[in-house]
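Cont'd.
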Amino acid sequence: MPKRSTVIAASALAAVLVIAGAVTALTVGGQASAAKTKVTVRLWDDQVAKAYEASFAAFEKKNPDIDVTVTVIPWADYWTKLRTDVAGKNVDDVFWVDGGDYPAYADAGALLNIDKALGADAAAAWSPAVVKQYTRDGVLWGVPQLADPGIAVYYNADLLAEAGLTPADVADLRWDPTGAADTLLPTLKKLTKDTNGTTADSPGFDGTSLAQYGYNAGYDLQAMLLNYVASGGATFQDGEEYSFASPKGTAAFQYLVDLINTAHVAPSAADTNTNGDFSRDQFLQGKMALFQSGVYNLANVNDGASFPWGVTRLPSGPAGAISGVDGIVAAGSTSSAHPAETKRVLEWLGSARGSSYIGANGSASPAVTAAQADYTAYWAARKVDIKAFYDVLENGSAPAITGGGWPAADNAMRPLLQEVFLGRTPVAEGVKAAQDAANAAVAK
Amino acid sequence: MKWTRTAGIYLVLGLGAAFTLAPFLLSILTAFKTREQFAGQSVLAWPDPFTVDNIVRVLAGPAEFGRAVLVTLLAAVLILIGQLVCSILAAYAFARVDFPGRQVLFWVYLSTLMIPPVVLIIPLYLMMTQAGLRNSFWSLVLPFAFASPYAVFLLREYFRGIPQELIDAARLDGANTLDVLVEIVVPLSKPIIATLTLITIVSHWNSFMWPLVVTTGPQWRVVTVATASLQSQFNGNWTLVMAATTLALVPLLVLFLVFQRQFVRSITISGFK
Amino acid sequence: MASNRRRRHPGIRRRNTVTGYALLAPSLFGVVCFMLLPVLVVVWLSFQSWDLIGPIGFVGLDNYRSVLSDGVFGNSLLVTILFVALVVPIQTLIGLGAASLLTRDLPGSAWFRTIYVLPWICAPLALGVVWKWILAPTDGALNTLVGARIEWLSDPALALPTVAAVVIWTNVGYVTLFFMAGLLNIPEQILEAARIDGAGPVALFWQIKIPLLRPTMFFVLVTTVISAFQVFDQVYALTQGGPAHTTDVVAARIYYEAFSAFDLGRAAVMAVVLLVVLVVITLAQQLYFRRRVTYEMD
């Protein structure tokens, strides 16, 4: 009989051999052909990734020497991974960045200067708002890919009808911190019900237990804050310094917080602060009448809503109806091992042909101006009118967040603003504290 | 009297079980719902219509879940073998060999347990990059394959309970240290090794941050990272995530059921104390 | 035993040294390369200013000053200690209770054992999301059951106990497993002898079983205290440190400093301080358990 030690050693060795064999098999499966230069593209949106796959198939036909690989990193982990990969110089040749995060990478020298790489004229083909958002120190740092138009309001037509309203009644709503010219709140009161079915404009309304919400007022930078601050005649940032605690800015915050905690026409911040999907889910479940959001929720609403719905302009404030805009760019890595091929891929992404796939599969609104019609056409074919998202831009727009310190600033002000929306900190005090914390974090 | 007490015990155990199982029920229910139902109804609603579409999509979809399971399994088993071998040797040294520096070294081992793993990620990542191992199978295995201070600690505590007489007797028969380990210590330690096997596999099956950071793309994606890849910025895809979570639990459950028999049986057989 | 050792031959000593280090070699390689080296890097980072992509610069004690002077980290330490004080005793008691019920050889014990261990073998992040649905203020399962609107995760007074409850739920299986092994290892003769001496079931449990469980207890307490000090997954999934930093445990704070604010220097300082705190606590635990051993031997 063999010794126990021999048996143990033999079986461990066998296991290791089997594993080594399996790993080799898995490695071989992933090898690319050697003759082509491999260019990798990283992004977080799996729908746009599908458009990219189709787009790069066309690109590879015209450029047989290049093999483009698309990698999707989910949004929740994208920034953690991008930072570490840039730190280790392992980042993909082309990668997406957003407005709040790109300055740190540009300042660190990780991004290609697009003006130099593709020529200063190239920018003429792209959405001016996005070009402006990604120009820092006079240099453009990415090829514009997505240009979200403005924010608008999705409405549930059934709930409007139930309250005796038509879409036309919610097409030109106004909010006013003084209350004098306010038409938003009275409308929302008609659209909000407690669990007894009493609407918020009737006596006996119990604001502590709602069955139907009028609106999604809450701590949502893109869908709410930027637009309310701008429509209130204030700025969120002055240059790179946070300035939202100005009197007009504070009034806008106060108005939003009152909608939640005084008028009770919006869900409690306890529901929405740490669950960004709460309001959309309530809207899709037919429990919210007006849902303010962007085109990024079009596909979700179109797939999920089992009631007639439409899109209308966001409410106007003392300074008009002004929406924030936001764009996404594809940046080139300065540590790419094959800059010439990377440049050709960036050129393709910035061309009308290369970008047309994004609009054509309805995944997002392309930032290449010539490709934008495809997006409208896609939704028109599905009988969805997305004009409201674009028309609002005629009133001007609020700039997106900018500056190198956004991650730290966001980190610093989030807990403070969440308390404001929960109604536990007085608005003026909390907003001021959040602004100070954000500026202190940026200064560090 | 006797049966009321037994009934009371079952009542307590049953309540505990219900409390333990309820969240799993919710996750399994969600795995069998349609996306439309999940978006349109309360999370508590019963699946209607009942669908296996999520399971199919997880297994056949672009997340390549099957591949991820294989990668995770291979990595976990390799780590397990490495850790068991290295930790048994080290634990025996700490428990039974009297050498200078033993106390200090043991405390060094133990104190590495106290570093929050999240801060080790950046240094380890830079090391793997330097070694050219980033985004490879070995980057998943190497940092953990040599020893786990936890395993050394657990085994040392256990080895100290093995009667010295057994070891001395073997020594008199001319056995060297390795013989003692293989012929006496390891057979007597089956229950604890079984426990350790379960703990090691579970913790590496569920580890997320390190595989996320050190690998990119589908080639070496592990189960947790594949599950996270089902989500997108504006869509949580919870029906898919719950299907993946439920699927990922099955191999561990099988392992536990196998282990559990081993666990009880070997304790009753040995009982050397 | 100790005196025996001193009398040993110097040749045996040398051989022991060689054997000891030979046995340690493979694991020592792993510990040095993949733990001590990274830890040294972390200690070095605690004196630097680095955002991962920019240049690294030496800043002396600035990070220590900044971390120790702003209230954020002090609050995190306090929250963590409170959390450990909530979680460890409760889960130890529940685990002990469950283990003693499950080692009675009742039919069906194996099933209960399997059920209790489930939460611990499942990935904590996914389960965190399920708990979030259960604890949601509107339409959450628990509030539906209770029939009241309780804001489990956003009420500052409730958030930490709620997270602690979820962590206990996760860990009970692990603790139970160890206590079961410990209880099954107690020789039947000892229990029999105590019964003959007239010990009732309660006395048997507290005066015979618990003292005999001491090695298990030491191991379980050391590892669960360390893991409770490092709790991250459930906090990340449930509250992300909120509301108003009431669940901002140290590991979550370190994660945010390192991977959200990208301030590696501050994150490193916090890790170093946590390490020191844990070493002190573990030393104290060891001293306590060792004293108890000698006390009973006398």
